[in-house]
């Protein structure tokens, strides 16, 4: 994959470059938020590895800007240990996943590989789903409600795809973490709730009474129309 690494700490930046290059990826570096927000718009990048604490423009804002222009580009955030707020803000800004610093080489490569697999596993057939006044084109990570075009992140698309494929039953948060996030055991189920809440705001006519992704008490979530 062609990866944009956004990190201002030289030691970590070098480590990430070596690690990902040795694993066969192409990498480019950005050392501050402004550069990252500009380079991230380049369509040749397939993944962005994004630190949050950055000079000039913080990673959350960088994420928001890149996400706006490239809705389906996978973005992996690097967050400081214990900073739950950073994780939530990152996910709200459209990041697909996060890795907590300090991370091991194997953990990071596993996350990157999981993202690469997800990109490749998108079926070539169009995935059109119509429900509750919303028309989804999951293969292209977009939805449409009336004349409004709604851009979906890779993660949001993954959630919709999984729930729709298993619409005859409810799906637990743990299952979503495993299937859509390829999650490590330390990931919290709150991650799922934050992402679903954002998604509902984008796709539901009334997010307070969702019809497309419904909550199933004591279990998790389900596709609204079985
Ligand atoms: Ca930093």
Can you put this structure into words, describing what you see?
The protein has a five-stranded parallel β-sheet, sandwiched between helices. A four-stranded antiparallel β-sheet has the order 6-7-8-9, with no helix packed on it. It starts with a strand and ends with a strand. The longest helix is centred in the middle third of the chain and has 16 residues. With 226 residues, it is α/β, with parallel strands linked by helices. Helix 2 packs parallel to helix 3 and helix 4 packs parallel to helix 8. The protein has two domains: 120 residues, Rossmann fold; 96 residues, Arc Repressor Mutant, subunit A, CATH 1.10.10.10. A hairpin with a 3-residue loop joins strand 11 and strand 12. 40% of the residues lie in helices and 23% in strands.
Write out the CATH superfamily name of the largest domain.
Response regulator
- Please mark out the parts with pLDDT under 50 across 5 or more consecutive residues, or reply none: none
Helix and strand string, N-terminal first? EHEHEHEHEHEEEEHEHHEE
**Spatial gap, N to C terminus:** 37 Å
What's the story with the biggest beta sheet? Answer: 5 strands, parallel
Average residue-wise pLDDT: 90
Tally the helices: 8
Provide the helix percentage.
25-40%
Number of DSSP-assigned strands: 12
| CATH top level class name of the largest domain | Alpha Beta
Helix/strand class: alpha/beta
Taken as a percent bin, the fraction of beta residues is 15-25%
What form results from the Cα inertia axes?
Answer: globular
């Amino acid at each position: 994959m062609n990866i944009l690494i956004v990190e201002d700490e030289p030691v970590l930046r070098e480590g990430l470059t070596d690690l990902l290059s040795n694993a066969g990826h192409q990498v480019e570096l950005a050392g501050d938020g402004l550069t990252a927000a500009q380079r991230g718009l380049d369509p040749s990048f397939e993944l962005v590895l994004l630190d949050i604490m950055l000079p000039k423009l913080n990673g959350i804002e960088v994420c928001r800007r890149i996400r706006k222009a490239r809705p389906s580009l996978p973005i992996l955030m690097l967050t400081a240990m214990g900073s739950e707020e950073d994780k939530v803000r990152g996910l709200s800004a459209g990041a697909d996943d996060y890795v907590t610093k300090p991370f091991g080489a194997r953990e990071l490569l596993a996350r990157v590989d999981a993202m690469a697999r997800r990109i490749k596993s998108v079926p070539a057939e169009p995935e059109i789903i119509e429900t509750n006044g919303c028309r989804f084109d999951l293969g292209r990570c977009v939805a449409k409600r009336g004349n409004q075009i709604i851009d979906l992140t890779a993660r949001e698309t993954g959630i919709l795809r999984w729930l729709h494929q298993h619409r005859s039953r409810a799906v637990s948060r743990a299952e979503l973490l495993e299937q859509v996030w390829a999650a490590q055991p330390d990931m919290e189920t709150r991650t799922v709730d934050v992402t679903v809440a954002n998604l509902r705001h984008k796709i539901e006519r009334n997010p307070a009474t969702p019809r497309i992704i419904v909550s199933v008490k004591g279990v998790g979530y389900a596709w609204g129309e079985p």
